Amino acid sequence: MTRTTGSTTLDAQTTATLPGAEVLMRALVEQGVEVIFGYPGGAVLPIYDALFKQTHIRHVLVRHEQAAVHAAEAYARSTGKVGVVLVTSGPGATNAVTGLLDAMMDSIPLVCLSGQVPTPLIGNDAFQEADTTGITRPVTKYNYLVRKPEDLAPAVHEAFAIARSGRPGPVLIDLPKNITVGDAPYTDAQSVTPRTTRMGATPDRAAVARAVAAMKAGKRPLFYTGGGVINSGPQASENLRKLVELTGFPITSTLMGLGAFPGTDSRFLGMLGMHGTYEANLATHDCDVLIALGSRFDDRVTGRLDAFSPNSFKIHVDIDPSQINKIVHVNEGIVGDVGQIIAMMIEEWEKQPAYAHKADLEAWWAQIEAWRALDCLRFTQDNAADAVIKPQQAIQRIYELARQTGRDTYVSTEVGQHQMWAAQFFRFDQPNRWLTSGGLGTMGYGLPAAVGAQIAHPDALVLDVAGEASTLMNIQELGTIAQYRLPVKIFIINNHYMGMVRQWQELLHGSRYSESYSDALPDFVKLAESFHATGLRVTRLDQLDATIRQALEHDGPVVVDICVAEGENCFPMIPSGAAHNQMILGPEQEESGATISKEGQMLV
Amino acid sequence: MQVEVSGSAVISLLVDNESGALARIVELFSGRGYNIQSLTVAPVDEHGQTSRVNIVTTGTQSSIRQVKTQLERLVPVSRVVNLTAEGPYVAREMALVKVVSSGEPRTEALRIAQAFRARAVDTTASSFVFELTGSTDKLDSFIELMRPLGLVEVSRTGVASICRGPQTIQNF
Predict the structure, then answer these.
(1) Residue A41 and residue A536: Cα distance in Å, rounded?
(2) What range does the domain containing B40 cover?
(3) A134 near B CB under 8 A
(4) Residue B57 predicted with pLDDT over 70
(5) CATH classification at residue B113
(6) pLDDT tens profile B74-115
(7) Residue B119 and residue B12: Cα distance in Å, rounded?
(8) What is the pLDDT of residue A14?
(9) Which of these three, B86, B101, B126, is where a domain ends?
(10) Residue A195 to residue B31, Cβ atoms within 8 A
(11) Domain A14-191: assigned CATH number
(12) Which chain B residues in 71-130 lie under 8 Å from chain A, judged by CB atoms?
């Protein structure tokens, strides 16, 4: 068989020649694309013209290319489909870079189409020219510069295959204007054999059997699950529920994995890591078998590496072979789709001799319950009517009142303290509902992500739990929200500080709050109104619930400025360079003796 | 924790001969902080569609395993073999070595070149350019010997490598 790829020419199945931009549209339709998030410009005018002439694909006009990528990420994360972005050459493409890296770090399938100057001008410093493939090479899973018309359709088909296969990620296709204007042949997806990597090979059953045998031998086992379970699809979450039910083992999750297992289930210990729960972190430290499913031992999870889960037999399931033994040496690594491997684990668990350590497991659960009794997320809210609202109180009430609506709810966040509190207080019953920037930690993610989620799920309740500093980084998207009448609810937890920066300055830099005060903030109510949205403000405890309810009930976009206490810190916290059993707890709980070493101070 | 010793490894790759393929490989090394001691690349199939890349890298065994799995993630890379880990292999490179001298050092340079089976590919009254092929070690020692004898310039290709016996990079 002759291979047809993005870089080699096709052999058959060439039908009529069309203008390149129309070939592109046809390939996108064949790939099942329904929505594109984008922003026009000179180099992509032919593509916008082709978009204008067709009816299959809807275009959502954002106000900044970075926001287009975040919106597409949320669209992808909340639907399981590939998100599609369209940006112009030069600044259009460079503005997309942050979003592409965000998608790369969090394994989100995207295809980004960027305009480029005509091929004869490439390398001449033409107007709005950038070496886009050069700039985006380290922030994409793969990228193309289409130089020949016959490469166009195969590149699009292969790009979608690469974006969604194995460990998903962003793929960029750079499209010179002469390619989109000039004629190109169409090749259908079936006649293209994509060079998807060997990832996704059949998992090694013998390794699964050994892993399950280790699980059966465990007296203090723990599941540690991540975003891979969500990427694997809803079936993986179903399988995970079955496996946890079957084994009776406790389970913790990374930030990216929240929702794969129901947050309200008693076997769920909450998130682990830097701002994870007391019980999840101590269980990770003390367990004797750690079963990592679709998680990657990120430094925010592990804390000090030589003290990470020091006495456990470690099992690591990941679709990306390069993740195994990358950070933590594991005893059993299994490469493959995590949903499939969980299903194999269920089969093996039922096949192998019955679990013989039930009494030990009960003792382990008793220990976990004792840790849980500390109630590490507890905080004290002054109940006076005019009391200052604590940020934790605000986030907890947003969660509880949103839950009371009974509506299918999607939650995006910006980055910082409010993000961690949202991760701690929101309990998700289903996967694909939690949209946050984990790996890259991109401030300004939440507002455009809410756009993407609401476009994908027009009837759902979409919340953006925001901070006043983060949300200003992409506040222009209120324009997109207005244009498409997206009824998203933006809750700004306004503490007048870049809260997480302030917290670290308090803990690590002698409370010298260098440049972390949010001075000269806009009036968010008036800002919302100027963008045709409803603006609400709440400053006293007795108005909190009513204001949140009002926002949730309003059939349109709402910005709620929740003025909260300025000095709150997010606890528990594993300071950088410390081990999981050296958490700093909140003032409500006992002080623990963790101190931050010089080495810890050097870590971010 | 065990302390792992650092060593060098020869990694051979087959890659699609497309623009940017080499940049992907090189940027992977620089972006992740791996070393490249030498690198060679040239098309090796009859249609010029596939290139072979040979990289000599240094690191601990686990970091070299990481290099390999990271390289395998690259879309245009179809094969990655750590020849050092997989068994006996042949690794050769070529050097062009320029020596400018006269009198006794010039005669001595020629004599050593003969002992090493280096060929003089350019000769003037005051200079030689020697061509020498062999293992990296052999080239290193030849160059060291030439240093006091008027060595002025060296150009080396980097290592080309292949496994011994009937096995090929395709069957690993």
Answers:
(1) 36
(2) 6-86
(3) yes
(4) yes
(5) 3.30.70.1150
(6) 999 999 999 999 989 999 999 999 999 999 999 999 999 999
(7) 28
(8) 52
(9) B86
(10) no
(11) 3.40.50.970
(12) 72-73, 75-76, 78
